[in-house]
Structures are given as C-alpha cells and as structure tokens.
C-alpha cells in the first residue's frame, strides 16, 4: 500500500494532532477506525510519522561544509540559546546568512539537514533549537512537541529574534539575513519580518501562519510564501494576510503547490511531495540569492 492509497483524512488527523487540535489517544482511535477498514497500522504509522534516515541529503561530515554548535545571548528570552551552525568551506569571502527555523518540536535531524543544504548552496546557515532551555531536542518528535508546548511563547519568539541578531553579525556575514521556516517555523519567519522592520532582509515561510495583525504594518522584507494546496488550516489565513501585505506595499510572491499537503517539504514523512518540494526549494534558493546578494 502506497501513501497515495491512504485516505486524506488520515493526514488531516495527523495535522490536528501535531498542532494540538486532538490528543494522541484521539488520533490513535481515529487511525484504528481505518485499521478496521483494512488498512495496516504499520503502514499508516510509517506514512504519518517521521523516519529521519530518509531525510539526510547532505552528510554532517561533507567535505564542503563545517558544522558546529554555537550558543548566543537572549536576554529577553530564555537568557541563552543554542543552534546548529553550518558554514561553507570553499571560500573566505563574505556571504549571506540564512536562519533556519524548525517546526513545533525542536531541532530535529530534518531541520539540521536543511541547514546543511543551505551551506552546500553557498550560505551560512544557523538553526536554533527552541528546546535548548529544556535540554534540547529529545530525539523524538512526540516528546519534542510536548516539551515545546510548555515553553513561554513570547520568550521563544524573543530567542529567535536574538538568534537572528547573533548570526547576522557572524564574522563572515555580508550583513544580509534571510530566514526560512516550516510550520511553526513558517510562523516565526512571518513574525521576524513583522516584529522589527530591519531584522531580516528576506523571508521564506513554508506553510506558516501570519504574525498578529497589528505587527504586519512593520513588514519591509520581501517574502516568498510557500503553501500546499491541501493545507486547509494554514491556507485559511492567507487571504487576510495577503490583503495586509498588499496594503502595506510588501514585496511578496505566493506559490501554491498543487496536491501538496501541509509539511510537503519534509522528506522524512509520507507527506513529502518530491516534485513540489524540489521546486519550492529551488525557488527559495533563487530568492535568497537575489535578495541577499550585496552589489
């Protein structure tokens, strides 16, 4: 049985569960209803839950990059943050920086791989872990999601503001900062663009909800908004957000990916849509090269 044979509602239930709409017991009960109809629980689980062995496109010891962990001060957040820094090796020239923001479960292997992909493409990449105050990503997404729920949202947002300021001043930075994020991370991209007009220079939110309406008037950074056609929850927020982007003269483009689910870029789960993910990623890299290059 392929992912194409799994009813679409199973992916909707997982999205509800992953974002706090239903608890784990309700999620499993709903899946059990599909088992009664002849679907294998192991097939359903493998399609919906991450397998991070599938997500490594760039090895951590790739000779073209150097990866390390760096701490940074966050006086308005949790006092100190920590993130995964990946720097290209091939040049000593100044280069643009991209902040990478994880989903609502901490700095998992997929997001670290995204940072390595950016470094392979010629960017300095920095991926903070919102769970650092609690000891860091615990090794599985369910526990990470539960941990992140316990953190003060305002402090988490301030941690990412601090991370943006920290990495923008990297000694090899050209002074231009981009930001890409997924799900919760997509929201953080929208928030960073809105909370301070000059904090980031370009943002690529993947299926993320917008910042609060009163902040949107501050947006000056160009945005490339990436949405999946089947992502009803996030897509419902887009029309109003677009109205505000237009009214505030924001330079933006939105791409809607046909047949794509929420999380379609995440190649560790059954929601992954290779064709759309590769197109969205190529567009993201092109956008960052265009907006973050110093002429």
Please, could you describe this protein's structure?
With 295 residues, the protein is of the alpha/beta class. It has helices at 8-18, 24-35, 41-48, 109-120, 141-149, 153-168, 184-195, 232-235, 238-247, 274-292, and strands at residues 65-74, 79-88, 95-101, 124-128, 173-182, 202-206, 223-228, 252-257. It has an 8-stranded mixed β-sheet with strand order 1-2-4-3-5-6-7-8, sandwiched between helices. Helix 1 (8-18) runs antiparallel to helix 2. It is globular, with a radius of gyration of 19 Å.
**Assigned CATH architecture of the largest domain:** 3-Layer(aba) Sandwich
- Number of β-strand runs: 8
Task: Please give the largest β-sheet.
Answer: 8 strands, mixed
Largest sheet: spatial strand order = 1-2-4-3-5-6-7-8
CATH topology of the largest domain: Rossmann fold
Helix tally? Answer: 10
Poorly predicted residue ranges: none
Q: How large, in whole angstroms, is the Cα Rg? A: 19 Å
Gross morphology is globular
Query: CATH H-level name of the largest domain... which superfamily?
Result: Alpha/Beta hydrolase fold, catalytic domain
Helix content bin? 25-40%
Let me know the average pLDDT: 91
What is the structural class?
alpha/beta
């Amino acid at each position: 049985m392929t992912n194409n044979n799994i009813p679409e509602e199973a992916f909707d239930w997982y999205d509800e569960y992953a974002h706090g709409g239903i608890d784990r017991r309700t999620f499993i009960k709903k899946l059990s209803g599909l088992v009664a109809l002849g679907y294998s629980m192991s097939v359903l689980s493998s399609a919906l839950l991450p397998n991070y062995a599938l997500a490594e496109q760039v090895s951590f010891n790739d000779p073209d990059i150097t990866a390390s962990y760096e701490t940074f001060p966050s006086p308005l957040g949790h006092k100190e943050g920590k993130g995964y820094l990946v720097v290209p090796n091939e040049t000593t020239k100044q280069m643009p920086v991209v902040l990478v923001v994880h989903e609502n479960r901490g700095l998992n292997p997929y997001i670290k791989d995204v940072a390595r992909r950016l470094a392979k493409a010629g960017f300095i990449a920095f991926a903070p872990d919102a769970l650092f105050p609690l000891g860091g990503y615990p090794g599985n997404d369910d526990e990470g999601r539960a941990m992140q729920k316990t953190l003060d949202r305002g402090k988490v947002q301030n941690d990412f503001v601090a991370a943006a300021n920290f990495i923008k001043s990297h000694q090899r930075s050209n002074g231009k900062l981009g930001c890409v994020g997924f799900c919760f991370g997509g929201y953080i991209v929208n928030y960073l663009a809105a909370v301070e007009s000059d904090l980031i220079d370009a943002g690529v939110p993947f299926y993320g909800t917008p910042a609060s309406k009163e902040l949107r008037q501050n947006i000056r950074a160009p945005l490339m908004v990436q949405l999946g056609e089947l992502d009803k929850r996030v897509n419902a927020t887009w029309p109003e957000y677009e109205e505000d982007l237009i009214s505030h003269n924001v330079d933006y483009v939105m791409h809607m990916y046909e047949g794509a689910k929420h999380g379609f870029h995440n190649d560790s789960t059954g929601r992954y849509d290779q064709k759309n993910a590769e197109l969205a990623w190529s567009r993201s890299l092109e956008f960052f090269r265009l907006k973050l290059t110093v002429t």
